Amino acid sequence: MYDEDDFLQLSGIQHFAFCRRQWALAYIELQWQENVRTVEGHLLHENAHDSALKEKRGDLIIVRGMPVHSREIGISGECDVVEFHKSEDGVPVSGREGKYRAVPVEYKRGKPKANDVDVLQVAAQALCLEEMLCCDIPCGYIYYGERRRREKIEFTDELRKKVKDMFAEMHKFYDQRYTPKVKRTKSCNACSLKDICIPALNKEISVKNYIDRKMKEGEPD
């Protein structure tokens, strides 16, 4: 069990899965830059987290911006939306009659990705909710703004293990204050931290040679 002071940010798992160096630059070195994609993502999440938009529709309760945590994994964060569906096999909800089944819903600006970075994030939310509510959550959803529809995510044993293993690796990096070296990929161009990371500085190019080359490019003929 982790102490609260040692909790990592839940949302960091999507950055870590995308690029371990990006995560370390943002969450260990505290460096960050905005680009169009991150700004659009923030706007979408602001609407999802608006606490003034709490809803109750019959047997459905919708909670926005719900704080969650897990002492077992050592993480904390917020769920964009948690839906509580009235169900006999659910759990009690404070101030409400009956029992409810919790379903996390994560909001993303784009469309489903080829990798599992979004899936890992909503699965981490489910693990937090299970620990907090003492329940089982078999599935959740990711809402993609570009497609304007949800994708159902099954929380398999394999996915749960991957989430736990990844956060264990993140804790190790964080404790060691370790920032991985550059591993340049085609995803680097879309990264909001590319000007900080400087992916061109791979193992074949020294910092000195890179700076010298850039200075020469700026010299007049």
In a few lines, what is going on in this structure?
The protein is α/β, with parallel strands linked by helices and 221 residues long. The protein contains 7 helices and 7 strands. The chain is elongated and about 75 Å long.
Question: What are the salient characteristics of this protein?
Answer:
elongated; alpha/beta; 7 helices; 221 residues; 7 strands
Structural notes for this entry:
The structure is a single chain. The protein starts with 7 loop residues before the first strand and ends with a helix. Helices cover 36% and strands 25% of the residues. The chain has helices at residues 12-18, 20-27, 36-48, 117-133, 157-176, 194-197, 207-217; strands at 8-9, 55-57, 60-70, 75-92, 99-108, 139-144, 149-154. A hairpin with a 2-residue loop joins strand 2 and strand 3 (60-70). Strands 1, 2, 3, 4, 5, 6 and 7 form a seven-stranded mixed sheet that branches. Helix 1 (12-18) crosses helix 2 and helix 4 (117-133) packs across helix 5. 25% of the residues are buried. Mean pLDDT is 84; it is low at 35-43. The longest helix has 20 residues, at 157-176. It has seven helices and seven strands. It is α/β, with parallel strands linked by helices and 221 residues long.
